[in-house]
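User: Here's a structure from my thesis project, written as structure tokens. My advisor, Dr. K., wants to see whether a designed sequence matches the one we expressed. Can you design one independently, without my sequence as a hint?
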């Protein structure tokens, strides 16, 4: 039996890649597409809906979401309530929202995944950064994305910062009497270290985690040159969430 999939944000850069992946996978069947502004009633033979409420009675197993930070929380909440296991790539969730969704998923006994990054290399980069932070507590993160990205810092940078913090503890870096002659010059602060966000046309999704110590440095870098880099992870997630009974945060939890 095929896994029936809904895709929210199917016209977007990531959503359109996800649609191609779903269409090319024998085990998946796309059953509905959502975009609030689309005038189409169907796209490549798949029904298109403007409002999630129209999907309440549809027969589906998984809800893929690549939309915007403003709507992704409500979408994921709706998906869990209707037992469509969410596979969410949209970034910009608050920690409290993720916690609320995990509680709801347990209540509903519904699997799901929120992953700020679906690229396997990015998962490794985050894991290596966490390992390194035990020995190199002085660190800065530089994330680089295309200039249409709506949230900053990226969900991947925040997740990396969270993983680093879990082993590093609290340490305020830099000179105590440091001043910014231009506001924002030192980037955003996260538990005493800095995150910098670069936005330029031509970029896709890239991140460097830079560690410094006495007389040595370490640089860990990941590049997504193309959005297909995320689709192996999305494909794997769709197959996994239907077997789970609660939502998790981070692709590494289902690998
Ligand atoms: P995008 O090209 O702007 O696509 C977003 C799409 O969502 C647009 O087509 C938009 O439609 C649609 N949309 C807006 N409101 C909606 C709603 N209520 N229901 C359904 N669709 C709605 O952005 P993108 O580059 O694909 O990125 C999408 C999200 O994925 C971002 O949060 C980004 O940070 C994240 N992302 C995640 C990963 C990962 O691996 N997890 C990788 C890359 C990007 P309109 O254009 O008509 O407004």
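Assistant: Designed independently from the structure alone:
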């Amino acid at each position: 039996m095929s896994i029936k999939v809904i895709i929210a944000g199917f016209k977007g850069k990531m959503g359109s890649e996800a649609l191609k992946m779903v269409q090319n996978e024998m085990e998946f069947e796309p059953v509905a597409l959502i975009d609030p502004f689309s005038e189409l009633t169907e796209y490549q033979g798949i029904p298109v809906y403007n409002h999630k409420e129209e999907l309440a009675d549809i027969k589906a197993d998984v809800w893929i979401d690549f939309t915007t930070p403003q709507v992704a929380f409500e979408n994921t909440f709706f998906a869990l309530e209707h037992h469509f296991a969410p596979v969410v790539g949209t970034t910009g969730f608050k920690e409290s929202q993720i916690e609320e969704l995990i509680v709801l998923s347990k209540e509903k006994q519904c699997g799901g995944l929120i992953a700020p990054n679906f690229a396997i290399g990015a998962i490794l980069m985050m894991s290596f950064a966490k390992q390194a932070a035990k020995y190199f507590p002085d660190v800065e993160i530089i994330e680089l994305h295309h200039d249409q990205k709506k949230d900053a810092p990226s969900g991947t940078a925040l997740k990396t910062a969270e993983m680093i913090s879990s082993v590093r503890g609290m340490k305020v870096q830099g000179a105590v009497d440091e001043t910014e002659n231009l506001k924002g010059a030192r980037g955003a602060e996260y538990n005493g270290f800095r995150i910098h966000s670069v936005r330029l046309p031509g970029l896709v999704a890239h991140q460097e985690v830079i560690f410094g110590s006495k007389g040595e440095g370490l640089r860990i870098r990941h590049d997504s040159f193309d959005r297909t880099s995320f689709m192996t992870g999305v494909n794997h997630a769709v197959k996994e969430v239907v077997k789970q009974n609660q939502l998790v945060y981070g692709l590494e939890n289902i690998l």
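When you compare it with your expressed construct, this may help: The first helix runs from residue 13 to 24.
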